[in-house]
């Protein structure tokens, strides 16, 4: 594999990864503004253009007025108010299509010109299929909010979020393999790196449950939760395992606890890297990772204390993407 061949492909994959992060930001805004259920139809091929006249706007608004969200939460909403939430969901779906185009067109070019290094074509095909699956999961998630509820299922939201981070990690790992040489380092904290990456990933998934249940809107104190280390009622649902996915108190408590473990794991990894004979590149990545994890937990605390203001909540989503990406980078550097 020559650098001139590998570098353009790596740059393309990094661009796609940045577009996935942007998609996460748009998705967070869509969720926080309660815009996700505004588009009742799913037209992946002919739904690229928004309504262009008053009759079409009225048609899509009438469809929305048949949903549970409108009847139970937004009854009496004006057409002008509807347009505000419609645009965020429209941008979210449009950006997904743009990611598809940004991936497929260069992929076909590299494939037809035989520039893809050996062994990478199956990975790129897998990424394409995962992107298509993510679109289906997104619609599957949205459909859950149209029947007898005003929000999408927290389970489906978490699956959608997890798939987004899985695609992001896949893109970054392949791009790093193309341009960053693997260096075998004796006594490198490899297992710790993988453990930190797994813990960060689990914390992000727990955050998906928090978002899906609007759990950040309650227990808005820190470090205690309404005066208790462990809030009352964390085991009030039966069977017991439902508490971890449907009990607002338990879901937020679990996310907090996992966040604390993530901070400890990431800082432990950072100290281990500092004490190991690793490359300057790995040390640089670890230093940024340590800064981001401190910033991320600070943003999380501020978001809870201020009852989930939109700017802070979006920054918290950005922080999650950055922390995941940096931890993955460090893990890659130590896995030679």
General description of the model:
It is a single chain. Helices cover 70% and strands 0% of the residues. It has 2 domains: 1-179, no CATH class; 181-336, no CATH class. The longest helix is centred in the first third of the chain and has 34 residues, at 79-112. With 336 residues, it is mostly helical. It is flat and about 65 Å long. Helix 1 packs antiparallel against helix 4, helix 5 (121-143) runs antiparallel to helix 6 and helix 7 (190-212) packs antiparallel against helix 11 (310-334).
List key phrases describing it.
single chain, mainly alpha, 70% helix
Give a quick rundown of the structure.
The chain is mostly helical and 336 residues long. It contains 11 helices and no strands.
Classify the helix fraction into a percent range: 55-70%
- Label the overall shape: flat
Mean pLDDT: 92
Kindly provide the radius of gyration, computed on alpha-carbon positions and rounded to a whole number of angstroms: 22 Å
By DSSP (H or I, 4+ residues per run), the number of helices equals: 11
Stretches with pLDDT under 50, minimum 5 residues: none
By DSSP, the count of extended strands is 0
- Biggest beta sheet summary: none
What count of domains describes the coordinates? 2
| Order of helix and strand elements from N to C terminus | HHHHHHHHHHH
Task: Describe the protein's topology.
Elements lengths: L2 H30 L21 H11 L3 H5 L6 H34 L8 H23 L10 H26 L10 H23 L30 H4 L1 H27 L5 H26 L4 H25 L2
